[in-house]
Amino acid sequence: xxxxxxxxxxxxxxxxxxxxxxxxxxxxxxxxxxxxxxxxxxxxxxxxxxxxxxxxxxxxxxxxxxxxxxxxxxxxxxxxxxxxxxxxxxxxxxxxxxxxxxxxxxxxxxxxxxxxxxxxxxxxxxxxxxxxxxxxxxxxxxxxxxxxxxxxxxxxxxxxxxxxxxxxxxxxxxxxxxxxxxxxxxxxxxxxxxxxxxxxxxxxxxxxxxxxxxxxxxxxxxxxxxxxxxxxxxxxxxxxxxxxxxxxxxxxxxxxxxxxxxxxxxxxxxxxxxxxxxxxxxxxxxxxxxxxxxxxxxxxxxxxxxxxxxxxxxxxxxxxxxxxxxxxxxxxxxxxxxxxxxxxxxxxxxxxxxxxxxxxxxxxxxxxxxxxxxxxxxxxxxxxxxxxxxxxxxxxxxxxxxxxxxxxxxxxxxxxxxxxxxxxxxxxxxxxxxxxxxxxxxxxxxxxxxxxxxxxxxxxxxxxxxxxxxxxxxxxxxxxxxxxxxxxxxxxxxxxxxxxxxxxxxxxxxxxxxxxxxxxxxxxxxxxxxxxxxx
Length: 535
Known about the structure:
about 25% strand
């Protein structure tokens, strides 16, 4: 069945819908049909193919960057647009509490269930993780000299709030260095233990960090912080919708997340959980009534909200429930493991993400050898792949941590991806980093390489070595030498060259002993080789 056929009934119903119950009925009917289709799937491939039909991603685009932004199911988008239409038929009636049959407050109950909170009074709906982290930091009554302990792998949205309070309330931000890749959670826990002082008020870490996909052992960290009266704050931007999150099991005091990432909700949606027992210490501004704290969708301290967006936010949680949060977690992790296994033979990509299943997630990052992350991302974009180029580690203030600023590519796998897409991604990465014998184009898929690059000779070498390559056709050529950090050391050739055999000599007399890489580019095709200088 064509993908558009799945939505014909729902779109027709929405076109005739005049009330919220009619819109809700159209969406519910579509989700019920989805549930029936999935139940009738004959195998895993058919099951996940049917799930993939729910998304609007254009043909030829392969999205491997839910760590930045997710893709919202079409049914949710269609319902959201209809909510907006109904909203404007009577703005006053619908602006604050929602609609008959679709109350905005009900979304708090869905959010509570989605992350495992006890009551809706522990939940707030936000625009994103950054807003939630700002509410946490500004909601604590600080004393001068209080300390916040965090890591050197945090997203800016999870650390700027503490830097702001450092300026406003004279607190101190302390960072610990996370080894990369982490191989043992005991090492993380020991570093946190060692980083805590008598002035530590908050430990703030990512549930899944944005740089390498490391899943922090929050429950173990809570067993360190809770007995000492230290608040444990989690930046959960990357977890709900990827993992089956239960904040009570994690033991966190506050948890901030962005629903437009892995939950796949419309853009500009997020969640904030504040544990009931911690609410006296974390008093979110938007929940303030002036003489107390009350969590709700509309509050005087928060102002008017985008009610259609709030309701669609809840609909997205219903979508996940149709599939099952545990099933989603298992699928995205299985796909990421498949991706890691397929990339393992590539010498041009060095993994920096943990392999321990307890610490791994559905994001994996690699440091490239012999090229740059921006060049890889640019080439893959030309070929229809969306990936993320990022870096670690970020050091702020007077923290005595060496700033590595390691550039990496990050790859995310979600339920709309599949093994065939991953195979294409691996082939593209092999081509983009020079590790493969094929090049990938957006229109034609895999094509034979039009040139051959031989091993340099001698190798290892002292001072001079020759680089050989053959061109089947004349064209623009660039031959570049890099160090192991991906930094350009020398450009040996750049310009038009005729077809045939070519030889270049690299004089490394002024370079230090070590490993180097040479890259030969012929148009969109490239090969990278390793060479060793010994003096």
